[in-house]
Amino acid sequence: MQRWKFLFACLFIPIAYVVAGVLTIIADKPLHEDGHNCPPDSPGKAYKLGTASLCLMGAALAITNGMFKCPRIRSKSDSARPSTSMKVAWITFLLFWGITLTAAILIGAAISTDYPKSKICSVTDLHLPSIGGALCFTDAVVSTIYVISSSMLNTEE
To answer: Domain residues for 90?
Structure first.
């Protein structure tokens, strides 16, 4: 069962982040077309693609955190130094969350301009969806490293 869980995580999670990144980069194009008005009359293509991207990122995040436990911090009374896999698991865990939150904020800020009740129109020139999509690709790599290091950590204990 552990092998299937690991295989599922190593395949699904990076694929979900790559698809989310592609959707986000595709969502950037409608925001920069000549006929794009801000705020639009109805939710546009960028809003729908960005929302799908955020849903994929949320599903991948939930699966990653649900299947693999967060590395434990050892107490100061424990004289043994943390293992390399413990250090890698912690670093990738923090990077994983930081990149995911940053990408979600950038994507959310960008797609909010393509919603009818939006009050923000000044961020459309910044290409935030492209930056968020690139962060999704980076998150695919970091989340895979986190899954591998967390699995190694679980086998050590």
So the answer is: 2-69+83-156
Tell me if 152 is assigned to some domain: yes
- In tens, the pLDDT along 114-135 reads 666 666 666 556 677 888 889 9
3-state secondary structure 22-71: HHHHHHHHHHCCCCCCCCCCCCCHHHHHHHHHHHHHHHHHHHHHHHCCCC
Q: What is the pLDDT of residue 41?
A: 64
User: Within 13 A of 81's CA, how many CA atoms are on the CB side?
Assistant: 3
The number of domains in the chain is 1
> What is the rounded distance in angstroms from the CA atom of residue 74 to the CA atom of residue 79?
9
> Where residue 111 sits, what CATH number does that domain have?
1.20.120
d(CA 5, CA 2): 5
Confirm whether 77 is domain-assigned.
no
Higher pLDDT, 56 or 123: 56
pLDDT value of position 56: 92
CA atoms within 13 A on the CB side of 130: 10
